[in-house]
Specification:
Length: 102
């Protein structure tokens, strides 16, 4: 399920990773979620609606700078540059799996 996206400040890599982890903890119990299908390939990551056909977002691997996951919280997140944003604008996209899916 897609929880949401948030902007990541321009900091050094270590600070950026720390801020992302803080935000993930804060959003752990966020009730607002949308069912999605994630498809990974050598080209990148695509996010589809629950029908598996409606493309919601696509990120080439070259634009994904960082990814993380938390097994106990069933969270997966990645930080990427959006295609139509300035190069310095980074966004973290957060997903959570249902029990048994992760």
């Amino acid at each position: 399920q897609y929880v949401g996206s948030f902007m990541v400040e321009e900091l050094d890599l270590q600070q950026r990773a720390g801020r992302v982890e803080e935000q993930l903890r804060a959003l752990k119990d966020c009730p607002r979620r949308r069912s999605v299908v994630l498809r990974f390939s050598l080209q990148g990551l695509k996010v589809y609606g629950a029908d598996g056909e409606t493309l919601l977002m696509a990120h080439a691997l070259r634009r994904i700078l960082y990814s993380t996951w938390s097994l106990p919280d069933r969270q997966f997140a990645f930080v990427a540059r959006n295609p139509h944003s300035p190069p310095s604008a980074l966004f973290c996209h957060l997903f959570v799996g249902l029990p048994g899916e992760v």
